[in-house]
Amino acid sequence: MKKLIIANWKDHPETWGQAQELLARIEEHLRMIDHADRFELVICPPARYFSEVAPLLKEGALADITQLGAQDMTPEVLSVGARYVIIGHSDRRWKLGESDETVNAKLKTSLEQGLVPIVCLGERSRTGDWQGELASQAVATFRGMTPGQVSQCLIAYEPVWAISTNPDAVPDTPASAVQAMGVIRDTLVDQFDVSHPTFLYGGSVSPDNAADFLARPEISGVLVGGASVRSADFQKILTIVTTI
Ligand code: PGA
């Protein structure tokens, strides 16, 4: 299976001109590198750039490899032709107070609309019963869903403490991320009869650690935040994924 690179631009770049420049650099890079067919790229711009970004992803080297993703399930997502949608990002869960019920409802809507949900799960810290926190978040997030529906989701394990916007963030290690994915998988086997969920890792992914995460067979891709809007770093990550 091709590895997936999800670029979560969050609220960046500041101007549309900078966003165009970033896309132009990515397109140029995709034209230059060998084996760009070894991965798929999903670009999730802020909603204010949706309608301008959507046609650009159909041009040049972006056309074959890139899909449009949304950062949240909103009505515009369908009209701009997004194929992927991030659901339950920790910024929404913990900074905007989005409940498990809301995440669950958005997840069901995204599947009804034929989108591919990228469902974020992650514990807030590694103290106490973090495995229990992760397991109950998984149960609440997928509540009421069939094995087929859960299997259609991409599950982004994103430990909140590893996300670069949080103070003192440090990336997880591949071994420890795989261990946490095991906790989620055991829960899904037990509660939803789903034994082969697809996992992505997110949290301070950079050119320094991307190869280590992507090399793990248990990890199907990475969700890149901060480094996805730093042109040089993102180009390095795209080169790295072609070597896996
Ligand atoms: P980060 O963000 O790569 O900047 O840590 C990841 C995310 O929040 O999805």
Describe the structure.
Helix content is 43%, strand content 16%. The protein has helices at 16-32, 50-56, 62-65, 76-79, 90-95, 100-112, 130-142, 147-151, 174-192, 210-214, 231-242; strands at 3-8, 39-44, 66-70, 84-87, 116-121, 154-157, 198-202, 221-224. Helix 1 (16-32) runs parallel beside helix 11 (231-242) and helix 6 packs across helix 7 (130-142). Helix 9 (174-192) links the parallel strand 6 (154-157) and strand 7. The protein contains eleven helices and eight strands. An eight-stranded parallel barrel has the order 1-2-3-4-5-6-7-8, surrounded by five helices. The structure holds 2-phosphoglycolic acid. 2-phosphoglycolic acid is lined by residues 8, 158, 163-164, 202-205, 223-227.
**Tally of extended strands?**
8
Largest β sheet strand count, sense and barrel closure:
8 strands, parallel, barrel
Biggest sheet: strand arrangement = 1-2-3-4-5-6-7-8
Ligands, deduplicated: 2-phosphoglycolic acid
Q: How big is the Rg?
A: 17 Å
Structural class by SSE content = alpha/beta
Low-confidence stretches at least 5 residues in length (pLDDT < 50)?
none
| Straight-line distance between termini | 12 Å
Residues in helices, as a percent range: 40-55%
Q: What's the SSE pattern?
A: EHEHHEHEHHEHHEHEHEH
pLDDT average, as an integer? 96
What is the count of helical runs? 11
Shape: globular
The amount of beta strand, in percent, is 15-25%
